[in-house]
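fyi for ur records
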Amino acid sequence: MNVDALFVASDFPAPPASGRTGLVLTGGGARSAYQVGVMRAVADLLPRGAPTPFHVITGTSAGAIVAANIATYAANFRAGAVTLERVWRNFHIDQVFRTDTPSMLRAGARWLAALLSVGRLASPPDSLFDNAPLRRLLERRIDFRRLREVLATGHLDALAISAAGYSSARSFAFYESRVQPAGDASPWSRGVRAELGIDHLMASSAVPFLFPPVRMHDEYFGDGAMRQVAPLSPAIRLGADRLFIVGVRHDHKQAPRNLDATAMPSFGKLFGFMLDTLFMDSLHAGVAQLERLNRLVAQSSVPSPEGLRHIDSLVLVPRADLSAIAARHARQMPRTVRALLRIIGAADSDGSELLSYLLFESGYTRELIALGYVDTMARRDDVVALLEPGMRTAAGGRHPTRGRCGITSA
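which gave:
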């Protein structure tokens, strides 16, 4: 068993049990609206004005953007959740990338010129879309100075944002923490202590081909889901011994009816499949491995030589197929983007997977927020139990049972 590939490196002693709760938010583009709904539900389970119940917060891709917002409001969790919900409920795609006709035509013309001149007269664009609007939105909405304040006051222990280096071909967790992860005995090869900023968020959410890579730390970085084989590792490395994990991929997806398996898949379907593969977090396999490690720790009468410790976890994933929801809102896409989807063969059901990651429009995001809220409230007892003691007051004074390790699609 490769312990390092799971969560804890054998040559890196785990921090002692600390009662820290970690929040892990996976990636998924517009699908992360589901995570916003989960955070809003957690806020309603907390007393008004309560600080965050999460000591360590980690995020990947769009999940990193949600994570950063939640982290900066660690002193007042409800305020952060409400602010986050307000933005996502009123999302429009032009807040994420340019969709106006001139911008789309310029990008298309540049691709054509590069193709016709074999790259001699023009180079292809850095990406399909220009996501400069997203940077401006993040600069207005996320204040990293506030992050340093909540770290200094002890409302938060750490925030980690994952991004993948194109030269190193590795996924790294860039983290800002008020504590040293697991001591000074040996380095954390995939962890980089840094002063986090907008570049880290832009890099973590830079989906290949769709959005341009970001240069930072002497390398170009892209979406954090690439090369990420252990999405739970950063939270555990930073001292969490309970994990609340929110995924954005339905676990029991069924093939569409009347599917012609002999038909050649369109480029749009292939690209959507690629994105689904990129964001297909390994939660189920990871939690199963975590359960085995927990049993190993429970059966051992002596401290583990590999520094293993018991980790409780609860995973929430959507109870509905988000691609099917996206298909119902396809007409909300700007005409320019719908035209592009038609060109690549993603205008019908073949494109619903791709659409579910790109549809930053309020009708779709509001439905996902509502779904995340309902799914969380359906598991209220489990959520309260895991987040003990921070949510003991919300449970009406009842002492919650110990958090369980499991996955639910509500």
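DSSP finds 16 helices and ten strands in the chain. thats all i got for now
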